[in-house]
Fold this protein.
Amino acid sequence: MRTDTGQVFRLEDYRPSDYLIPETDLTFRLSPDATQVTAVLTMERREGVAADVPLVLDGDGLGLAALKIDGKEAASGAYEATPDRLTVTGLPATGRFKLTIETVVAPSRNEALMGLYRSSGVYCTQCEAEGFRRITYFLDRPDVLSVYTVRIEADASEAPLLLSNGNPVERGQLEDGRHFAVWHDPFPKPSYLFALVAGDLGKVEDSFVTMSGRKVDLGIYVEHGKEKLAGFAMDSLKRSMKWDEEVFGREYDLDVFNIVAVSDFNMGAMENKGLNVFNDKYVLADRETATDADFANIEAIIAHEYFHNWTGNRITCRDWFQLCLKEGLTVYRDHEFSADQRSRAVKRIAEVRTLRAHQFPEDQGPLAHPVRPRRYREINNFYTATVYEKGSEVVRMIRTVLGAEAFRKGMDLYFERHDGQAATIEDFLKVFEDASGQDLSQFSLWYNQAGTPNVSVSSTYDAAARELVLEIEQSLPPTPSESRKRLMHIPLAFGLVGREGKDLSHGAVEGATVEDGIIHLRKRRHTVRFSGVSERPALSLNRGFSAPVTLSVEQKQADQIFLAGHDSDPFSRWQAFNTLLTDALIDAFRSVLGGKEPRFAPWLGETAGRIAADEALEPAYRALALALPGEADIAREIGKGIDPDAIFKAREALAHTLASANRHLFGDLYHGLGDNGDFSPDAASAGRRALRNGLLDYLALLPGGAKLASAHFHGATNMTDRAAALAVLAQRHAGSAEATEALAAFERAYSHDPLVMDKWFQIQAAVPGPQALETVRALCGHPGFSMTNPNRLRALIGSFSSANQTGFHRTDGKAYRFFTDIVLETEKRNPQLAARLATGLRSWRSLEPARQARARAALLSMAAAAQSADLKDIVERTLA
Ligand code: B3K
Ligand code: ZN
């Protein structure tokens, strides 16, 4: 494990490297315990750098076996090698030179899953962010671009398949049953995009003809026998390639594109040039094993990694502070892709829910950082919802501010101007300024300032003058190390909804720039006067979630209810009902705290019923509207003094109220949506399943609910319905005969399939209540569980800490202590994963005092025991 040095990296300290590596030739002689790596680096000194400036290469846990300069053994005084650095002096004074570096690494003992490691007998690599330095000494930074040629030698029976980046050049036999392959990637790339895979895998083949008529061979490699599960991923890949040509004019550039699925992977997938490596969870799917959510994730992640070929690989990042340059932009691109492939409205609601669930707590807690951070201790801890999801929202806002046409012009300019470069956010903003003539300097605060802005709005309407006045104010709460904030440019999309449900027109506007349905906020306060407004409108604000802000609008409840039924913007219509539900839940929470039974106004049930039965709305949309805000969502809206048990009671009470009020309607709809046995993963079919399963969740609360869910479970003809029913049984009818029997049946049916068993772990980890700790502890001993596989740990421990508010935050703090032990145990093998798990405690300060004290004690003990930069960084920032 790389122990913490406490070193902090700062954006303002960036300077270019003294040396360049135009060419990199690598030879791997693979063996599990001692792989020999020979790197021949063609190097040169950057212009203007003095000849006596030493070359300092990065390493991480390396040992140097040999070093040559221009083919000659380096004199012992000419270099110094430590595990994390190779310093070479006395290099040729002018011109290019070749450095030959030999290292030996042990993939079989690499449990951190960074660098070269083995997953189920397959050699694979993960180099982003700083894994390449675990393979050989290198200038392991994204602004050093090199053309790679890679030769792989391995035992032919153990590893018949030998893959690397770029195009295949040569292959052949060697002595002793070994063979080799050579790959060449003509596109200069940073080391983090290097990849190698070698093993015995099955292949799914296809091809794609690009817009200029070039044929690209596509391959997806999976465990033998799983080929039939890769069809959806292949189809998603081809659709992504086509879409990027049509929407962004981007064509693929190599002769081959390969994807490999591995079962031990720290994250979702990795965009290595021409050789994407995937967590198998995001490749393998069929109706029997994957839910609709899995299908949607596969489609999105296949697209995301493919889109990186242009946004990330052809144009990469100058330094890791610019991570959002590739990640935020690529998330934006994959969101747009999914919106085009599926339902735009449903997709947008799902995106906003994800942003609020993951990014808002980050922005509002101790780990808050700008979309482009200015400092880090461990870069792997900055692959965050802020960099990714808020980063995507910022790109979306650029499009909103510029309009579709200027945005596309700016993107074209970006590709033209920066192809082959390592760029910055300044470069990115500049192309949009140049394409549109607009000044984006105030807008750039979205990249540089942390925290979620609040926008508050009140209104008055003067019927005689036909004038509507909006008082709008932005405020920016302080975040760690940024106490004073500057005012932002917030594009607020709006509509003035009239009695007929149509948007009212208006005349001249004073007090803010208002264009194409957007109010541009740039000052702290705006008094915006709309003339020529024919009646008092209901205010529909932040339509389509045009800006990632929290919004409070002083508005009559009747107007909110009206918007929930009539807003022509589907996102805002969903939002209107969701806000009503949230407000009702917060009131109910306060009642529970005050020892009273929560009560709900009858119109809530009526509105829910109307939405459920509205045939004009897509089923997927109705399912989203009917889904109550989660316990964590409610906690976030309440903000502090959180008692998860009281939130749980409030939410249960509302669920019962809505179910009882609509028992017949929900029952009829549920039966009307009955499964006819056909299956297609398309969005419309998935939407009908989502609605049916959402209704089941309500109906399960009524008498006979367990029986109904049990029938649903046993009658299911796909994993979506089966897993949904299992969750309803396990979580709503915990301990019932039906639940126990269904859990056992599921385990019997899928014990051979780890990815499906993850759902079984996940569902049980989320069963509410204090007994969950014992369940989770016991499941840690289940033969299907493994402390070394990231998917298993995330399914059981990650779900327990993030999806089980009452169980994880039990009052005695025992779950926190258990969690601390697991995190520290994980840290020994895989510090990156441990750090990621530890973020499960980031919202500890919002808890009520007793739980807060126990969470703090757990964090303090984690801080005292942590060894790695990864975990120390997270825990210390969480406590600060
Ligand atoms: N770029 C990778 C993430 C790498 C994470 C390193 N800790 C996957 C992606 O965002 O596409
Ligand atoms: Zn990415």
